[in-house]
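In this supplementary section we document a worked example of the pipeline. Step one takes a protein sequence of length 305 as its only input; no multiple sequence alignment statistics are reported here. Step two produces a three-dimensional model, which step three serialises into structure tokens for compact storage. The input and output of this example are shown verbatim.
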Amino acid sequence: MNLTQPENSDGTKDGSAKPPPDSGTDTVHSSSPLLWLTVLSLDAPAVAVLWQLLFARSFHVRLSASIPILLALVVWLIYVADRGLDVLKAPAKGAEAARHIFYRRHLWAFLVPFCAVFLLAAWMSLTQLDARTFRDGIIILLAVGVYLLAVHFLSPEREWLPKEMLVGVLFALGTCFPVWERMTQGVTSSFPAPYLLCTALCWMNCAAIEYEEWKRLRHRQFGSPHPWTIWMGQHFILLSFIAAAIALCLIAFGIGRSIWQLLASEMLSALAFAWIQRKDKSLSIDQFRVLVDLALFTPIFFLPF
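The serialised model returned by step three reads:
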């Protein structure tokens, strides 16, 4: 999943800082083909749809085809808008990720697809959604709008909460709320645990990417992440094992026996996080980012069965 974080900047304008070795300035064409998922903002919609479908099946909720399609469209729009706003800022010389380089070079190429997808999403929202889902979706979109406004235009000197946490919370909420709305009363009690674990995984994904890019790509320059993000990056393997252990305990001893596939998917994602972090020194920053996003594709192993 490309849970994108706005690029930090420390206001440096003289370009005196030397580009770090892993600067990400190589073109997309020389990188892994999977990097196209990130630079075209396709990974986040895919992750959202996969988890929504697995949540729906695990809790025996029937979603109309329009809901996951609309989810994919809206997530894509949000991520493209976020990256478009990112590249309107002055670049951090020699320290831009591949996705920002690509958007800076091809921003106008996204204009027509963005407008077309926006119109399609608006039409589907007005014609395909029930009143409750439409209302709740608008509320979440307003929260996303406030987030984008605060990050890109207000730029508070002190972040009370890490951006990575807010992204994880909003991403999981937007993915899961249509399922929660349609659940029968008898099964709602088993929803919070896997939902909160999914939220934690989304937050961890964002934190790992932001920390690694700050450490390796920006070479600990151009601003510093939130202290919580730095702490999570430094203890990422431990946090991953804790998340996997929680999922395993819920399957074995708790409420998770009836939704074991959902929890098993979360456990696999957490274990994949730990494995990727152990291998990070042998991975380029682009490879690390792609793999951390792909670690959230685990629902694909359970949906066909």
